[in-house]
Amino acid sequence: MATNAPCGLVSLNNVGSVVPKNENEMEQNQTQMSKDKNTNIDYTQRAQWLRAAVLGANDGLVSVASLMMGVGAVKRDVKAMLLAGFAGSIAGACGMAIGEFVSVYTQYEVEVSQMKRDMNMNGYKEECEKVGFDMRIQKKRISLPNPLHAALASALSFTMGALVPLLSAAFISDYRSRLLVVVAMASLALMVIGILGAEFGKTPKLWSCIRVLVGGWMAMAVTFGLTKSIGSSGLVL
């Protein structure tokens, strides 16, 4: 049973719930609930597209920069480095797009086939085919990324990453300066990729930067060193 309370105080109803003092308090409560709803984000839902974007950009940057460093180890001509980087960016973008399309489409087919097997094992084949199966297929189609969208995203992110070393070396004629600028710009871009990936996924930024940065340095160093050693042995024309 509700009790009388002075104006401006909180009163209790018969089930013990709190009644807001006035309309302002109700508006404040609604605003707070809206903020809580907006901040309650399931970041695991971002994992699929975030993985593809980070992988594409990182792969484009590291592979093209390493390729240009490898060519630069035996060829001082800027045209040779740029041609190798351009060819690598085109081939890599096509490879990433095709690979992502096949991967996502294969994942979709596996998910659908597994659902069919589960339904057959549970003895709900006819009923599920009439009603439930179509609904579950629709949910899976929503949860899985579109193969074409994934392919385009991977190709675009790879190309964006590849542009960094290409543009870095395009206007530098001096050989040593060109190599240093490619490494420096690639390192800076790797740090940006690490920070953005951590920001979107809400993970530690420091370790994210260290992972991509060290990995990129290792790839460029190994490619440069092995190509240099092969060129020194006289195997490179």
From TrEMBL:
<keyword id="KW-0408">Iron</keyword>
<feature type="transmembrane region" description="Helical">
    <location>
        <begin position="150"/>
        <end position="172"/>
    </location>
</feature>
<keyword id="KW-0472">Membrane</keyword>
<dbReference type="GO" id="GO:0140315">
    <property type="term" value="F:iron ion sequestering activity"/>
</dbReference>
<keyword id="KW-0813">Transport</keyword>
<feature type="transmembrane region" description="Helical">
    <location>
        <begin position="210"/>
        <end position="227"/>
    </location>
</feature>
<feature type="transmembrane region" description="Helical">
    <location>
        <begin position="52"/>
        <end position="74"/>
    </location>
</feature>
<dbReference type="GO" id="GO:0030026">
    <property type="term" value="P:intracellular manganese ion homeostasis"/>
</dbReference>
<dbReference type="GO" id="GO:0005774">
    <property type="term" value="C:vacuolar membrane"/>
</dbReference>
<dbReference type="GO" id="GO:0005384">
    <property type="term" value="F:manganese ion transmembrane transporter activity"/>
</dbReference>
<comment type="function">
    <text>Vacuolar Fe(2+) uptake transporter.</text>
</comment>
<comment type="similarity">
    <text>Belongs to the CCC1 family.</text>
</comment>
<keyword id="KW-0406">Ion transport</keyword>
<keyword id="KW-0812">Transmembrane</keyword>
<dbReference type="Pfam" id="PF01988">
    <property type="entry name" value="VIT1"/>
</dbReference>
<protein>
    <recommendedName>
        <fullName>Vacuolar iron transporter</fullName>
    </recommendedName>
</protein>
<feature type="transmembrane region" description="Helical">
    <location>
        <begin position="81"/>
        <end position="105"/>
    </location>
</feature>
<feature type="transmembrane region" description="Helical">
    <location>
        <begin position="179"/>
        <end position="198"/>
    </location>
</feature>
<keyword id="KW-1133">Transmembrane helix</keyword>
<keyword id="KW-0926">Vacuole</keyword>
<dbReference type="GO" id="GO:0005381">
    <property type="term" value="F:iron ion transmembrane transporter activity"/>
</dbReference>
<keyword id="KW-0410">Iron transport</keyword>
<dbReference type="InterPro" id="IPR008217">
    <property type="entry name" value="Ccc1_fam"/>
</dbReference>
